[in-house]
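A quick aside before the break. I want you to see a complete sequence-to-structure record at least once, exactly as it would be stored in a machine-readable document. Don't worry about memorizing anything.
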Amino acid sequence: MSITTLISMAVLGLSITALQETPLPPAPTSLSGNPQQIDMQLVKTGVLSSFQFASGLTRPVFVTHDGTNPDWIYVVEQRSGSTGRIKILDRASGSLISTFLSVSGLNTGSEQGLLGLAFDPDYANNGYLYINYTQNSRTYVTRYQRSSTNPQTADSGSAQVVFSINQPFANHNGGWMAFGPDGYLYIGMGDGGSGGDPDNRAQNLNDLLGKLLRIDVTSLPYSIPASNPFGDEIWSYGLRNPWRSSFDRVSGDLWIGDVGQNNWEEINFQAASSSGGNNWGWRCYEGNNAFNTSGCPNPGTMDFPIWEYSHGGSPFRCSLTGGYVYRGTSIPWLDGTYFFADYCSNQIWSLKYDGNMVSEYTDRTAELAPNNGSISRVSSFGEDYFGELYICDINGEIYKIIQN
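That is the input. The structure line, written in tokens, reads:
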């Protein structure tokens, strides 16, 4: 790194390194849009690698884009002290463009802080963004608006609380949010914490914890979509701690990574055609395995994961980090491949799912060893405007998946 770069990074207070890349053509702007045409003469298989896109961040837990600015990458920093931040990085150089938003007074537990970010589908025109954070032992979903004078910052005075709910314990706060292909805002809620869901919240349809919620934020206060299966905010239920879910930007299918209790981690899949109402099984089942079936409905009424893996092994596996389906253009043979990881073991895997069968399950850990540093404690995956995938290391780095 040059002296000029070092000085620049010191001024910004953030040490970032990156590899230049050639700009790619625009991606589909709709989650339900058609995939871009791919030259079938291109190589169909290959080997992956990764490079350190950015370093010097503070507990990064999410990477995303705003659907409007192709060259900007947004990184959510969970917290520094009690303040969480969203930073904009340059997609080509990895350098810091601005601190987009700071939120103070957050809870400081290991699973608390600034946890989620979603940009309105009409962000280009209305400038609305939504954040998910824990404060005063409550989860808040709050809307902000882009600054009218500087698009590289949010208007800190525009905050408007959309939704909030009490968190009885400091863990299992969920935190993921995204707009679905239907334009509604989906919010992943953990079961309220402790262990074993002691108050049976995930199976209780009178409680919003342990659920995937779906609301209409076209205007505030929010409204309940008429097609929600139970007539309230609940879209599906029976979740323990959905830590990172995602919509496939091409198919619209929903992938849910749900962290297990004692023995099993699971990935749930909901087809884009689903009308909701799924019971994912917790606390009755952990993955495909009975956990506490007292008072539980018939398992035939539940939807079980398309993939599970057990705790243990060497390195020790214990906590799933859900990911994304690759829909970028720079690695065409990877199209349709879902990536996920384990936070404890630092392992990264991929697989494909056709709606009936899992295939091409692959351990990518060694393959994705980066050019600089090492990937550990994978807190999230994320995608940029073009559908290329990134890996968040909570120790302060962002890595980009590339073809070797």
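Two observations worth writing down. The longest strand covers residues 154-166. Helices lie at 3-12, 123-126. We'll return to this after the break.
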